[in-house]
Backbone:
């Protein structure tokens, strides 16, 4: 597509530091969730994980297992109280433009247009006006939203909103992309399209991706490795290699792929049942 | 039907009321001192405009209401947003807001006169105090409803914590804040006229009181109608501005 994108900063450094050690090191992280009312809950229990440069890792687990919490800790939105999280050897201390995040419910600024949303981060980065206008348009084109740049989020479909959010995050060129069930609010068809779209974009602008989901097939299809998490308190149960040829969505029907999904589903199933039981106990407790 | 046609139809009851008023007083169904005919009132209004009474008094009233309202918007928005943003401010301010909210603000008229005398100052202070509460509460509720994910998004695009207050919390609070300001706008007219009625040497309220006390009822009604119209027009203009400002919301 556009050659401009390939020349823009950060995107042209594809071939450097492929052999660098783990970019994200999560070491024995605990997290206590303190609700305003009621008891403290141990959300994460001794979680350790290393993610390599430009690796695509999925965090898979039942709802309430703390996978999003782990993502927010890496993002620096929540303080790391016990254990450490290192990014390129440095302790996480608050959010920063080296880590971009995409949320399930898009988190677009509803008072800004598609272009305005994408420009925002570039403004904050202090990019000169002409340059950021151009870059915003390049990314609008990258995610296929040309012609919608002056629309407000309320005028867009769910899939288009998420494209905008992805473009907004990619435009500031973070090294790490944190994705919190980004396709969870979309219908099945749109979700399938967005998955292929994400892979296409990721291959063009490779980044380290941590992708939270509870969809086994999605995790296996997208990720290089899937970290399966246990029901609360969240632990990393196993890590499964899931490197497939992603250029072709037909892979989803191959025997190897289906077996892999099955294998992981068996690992997740017990945890999902546990999580469900816990939920129904909790409901009974309230009655 | 065309839009103007619709608007005309909507205000048809007002025209009927005007006709009824004219008929009732023309045919002497009520005493003309209690209700002078509408045509007399209009004539009195023209005289008031001609000799400049309405304009000078009107301008001083608008100055007081405008200044009081502007102050209340400035202070109230900042206060409400900081209450939502930083707990200690909330702890400090919210009991004060709770106590003063139900207080009829007109009870403060003598107090503000003792503090600042009979002139503009006391009216501006009264309007400021009265209007600040709905603005503060609107800003507070709006700011409290701002989404965590939006703040986080801004943070990881490089906005400082303080910066997110301006870039995320304030626009998130805007719909509720603008609603609070609308309440304040109506309140400012009420407080303006009642304070001027009680102690003032100029202004709409003063004029109404003065003309009424001297039995000049045609002119008194003319001023009352002027205030009613200005209040209505201010609200309409405000609504138009609000619609513009919130055009991004789902249509």
Residues:
């Amino acid at each position: 597509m556009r050659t401009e994108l390939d020349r823009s900063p950060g995107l042209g450094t594809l071939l450097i530091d492929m052999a660098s050690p783990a970019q994200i090191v999560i070491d024995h992280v605990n997290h206590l969730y303190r609700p305003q009312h009621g008891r403290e809950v141990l959300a994460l229990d001794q979680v350790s994980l290393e993610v390599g440069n430009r690796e695509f890792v999925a965090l898979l687990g039942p709802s309430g297992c703390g996978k999003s919490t782990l993502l927010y800790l890496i993002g620096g939105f929540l303080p790391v109280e016990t254990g450490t999280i290192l990014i390129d050897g440095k302790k996480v201390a608050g959010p920063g433009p080296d880590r971009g995040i995409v949320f399930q419910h898009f988190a677009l600024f509803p008072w800004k247009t598609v272009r305005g949303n994408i420009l925002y981060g570039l403004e904050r980065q202090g990019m000169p006006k002409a340059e950021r206008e151009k870059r915003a348009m390049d990314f609008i084109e990258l995610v296929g939203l040309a012609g919608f740049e002056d629309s407000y989020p309320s005028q867009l479909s769910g899939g288009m909103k998420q494209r905008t959010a992805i473009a907004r995050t990619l435009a500031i060129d973070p090294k790490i992309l944190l994705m919190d069930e980004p396709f969870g609010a979309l219908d099945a068809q749109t979700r399938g399209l967005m998955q292929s779209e994400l892979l296409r974009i990721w291959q063009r602008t490779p980044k380290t991706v941590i992708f939270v989901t509870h969809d086994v097939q999605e995790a296996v299809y997208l990720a290089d490795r899937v970290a399966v998490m246990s029901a609360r308190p969240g632990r990393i149960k196993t890590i499964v290699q899931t490197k497939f040829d992603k250029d072709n969505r037909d892979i989803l029907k191959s025997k190897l792929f289906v077996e892999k999904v099955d294998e992981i589903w068996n690992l997740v199933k017990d945890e999902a049942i546990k999580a469900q039981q816990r939920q129904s106990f909790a409901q009974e407790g309230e009655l | 039907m065309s839009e103007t046609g619709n608007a005309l139809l909507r205000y048809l009851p007002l025209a009927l009321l005007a006709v009824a008023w004219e008929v009732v007083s023309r045919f002497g169904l009520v005493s003309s001192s209690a209700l002078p005919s509408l045509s007399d009132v209009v004539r009195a209004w023209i005289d008031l405009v001609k000799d400049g009474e309405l304009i000078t008094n009107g301008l001083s009233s608008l100055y007081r209401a405008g200044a009081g309202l502007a102050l209340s918007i400035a202070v109230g928005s900042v206060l409400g947003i900081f209450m939502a943003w930083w707990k200690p401010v909330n702890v400090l301010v919210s009991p004060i807001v709770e106590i003063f909210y139900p207080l009829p603000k007109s009870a403060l008229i003598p107090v503000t006169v003792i503090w600042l005398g009979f002139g503009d100052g006391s009216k501006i202070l009264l309007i400021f105090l009265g209007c600040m509460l709905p603005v503060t509460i609107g800003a507070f509720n709006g700011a409290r409803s701002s989404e965590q994910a939006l703040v986080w998004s801004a943070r990881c695009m490089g906005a400082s914590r303080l910066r997110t207050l301006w870039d995320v919390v304030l626009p998130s609070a805007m719909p509720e804040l603008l609603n609070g300001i609308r309440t304040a706008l109506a309140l400012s007219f009420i407080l303006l006229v009642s304070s001027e009625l009680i102690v003032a040497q100029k202004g709409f309220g003063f004029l109404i009181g003065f003309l009424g006390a001297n039995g000049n009822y045609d002119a008194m009604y003319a001023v009352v109608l002027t205030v009613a119209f200005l209040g209505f027009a201010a609200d309409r203009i405000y609504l138009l501005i609000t619609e513009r400002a919130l055009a991004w919301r789902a249509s």
About this structure: The CA atoms of residues 241 and 273 of chain A lie 24 Å apart. Strands of chain A lie at 24-33, 41-51, 56-60, 82-87, 90-91, 99-102, 176-180, 208-213, 225-229, 236-241. The first strand of chain A starts at residue 24 and ends at 33.
